[in-house]
Amino acid sequence: MPLIPEEPQIHESVPGPRATPAAGRTAPTPRPVPGPGPRPAPPRGAPASSARPGKPGPAAPSRGPVPAPPVQRTDSPQPPVAPTGTAAGPQLQLIPAPAGGAVDAADEAVDLLLDSGRPPGEILVLTTGENHPWATHELSFGAASYWAQQDAADDVFYADAGAERVTGRPVVVVAVNDGNAVNDGNAANEDATARALPAALARAGALLIVCGDPERINAVLGAHA
Questions:
Q1: What contacts 60, CB < 8 A, 6 or more positions away?
Q2: Hey, which of 65-69, 166-170, 184-188 has the most confident mean pLDDT?
Q3: Which end of the chain is more exposed for a tag (fewer CB within 10 A), N or C?
Q4: How does DSSP classify residue 14?
Q5: What is the three-class DSSP state of 104?
């Protein structure tokens, strides 16, 4: 299923700090605020209490809370379709990045997902080459402690894309950071990516984000479309 390369940031379907209303929804019209200008005098014979002072006075009786429309993010990465197990499969998104910048691009994608309200326990980050620095750090405390964090599912989990113990999550972010076999002649790198991307697609319940070389990624995923 070929993907169309996007800008280095997540647009259209990934969150950013925008407050632009979503298509089809109208921005709420601000209510006018009463000013302190002069007001007409009450009619002759009317009770004195009916006159409203020019300066701010007691507020009018409340008619009950008015629910505000939810904030919409036009570039949210939240998956709009396919839950786990549907025939349509997860939504696919490509973030162009060189092998050396794929991990940074994946980290930025995770930040945007968290900013949009995605629970951290729903996000899995995989690397096809060198481990993510977080995974390297946590593995230094022992494998048992490291894998226990995956089972707890209360935070973003970082792992090697080829690790068999990795379980699926609603959102999977892949950093293709193992180099490009077209340029370096390393067939092992190409084989690793060819295995990692289909496996990541199977692990993603709703959204798969792949950070790396667009031509290489499309070649691999297109073969499994």
A1: none
A2: 166-170
A3: C
A4: S
A5: helix
Q: Strand 91-96 vs strand 169-175: parallel, antiparallel, or unpaired?
A: unpaired
Q: How far apart are CA 196 and CA 65, in angstroms?
A: 51
**What percent of the chain lies above the pLDDT cut of 70?**
55
Tokens of 21: 């209303």
The angle at the Cα of 136, spanning 130 to 138, to the nearest 5 degrees, equals 155
What the block records as the tokens of 33 is: 């605020």
Query: Cβ neighbours of residue 150 under 8 Å, at least 6 residues apart?
Result: 157, 159, 165, 166, 167
How far apart, in whole angstroms, are the C-alpha atoms of residue 89 and residue 175? Answer: 20
Q: Are 95 and 210 in contact (CB under 8 A)?
A: yes
- Residue 182 has which token pair? 């077209």
Per-residue burial over 86-109, b = 16 or more CB atoms within 10 Å of its CB, e = otherwise:
eeebbbbbbbbbebebbbebbbbb
Closest CA to 213 of 191, 195, 190: 190
CB of 90 closer than 8 Å to CB of 82: yes
Nearest alpha-carbon partner for 204 in 93, 120, 101, 84: 84
| Residue carrying structure tokens 């298509």 | 23
Is the pLDDT at 202 greater than 80, yes or no? yes
Say how far apart CA 182 and CA 120 lie, in whole Å: 35
Please give the structure tokens belonging to residue 147. Answer: 């894998």
Q: Compute the distance between CA of residue 128 and CA of residue 177 in angstroms, rounded to an integer.
A: 6
Chain-centroid distance of CA 9 in Å reads 11
CA nearest 114: which of 166, 161, 167, 173? 173
**Which of 19-23, 43-47, 89-93, 119-123 ranks highest by mean pLDDT?**
119-123
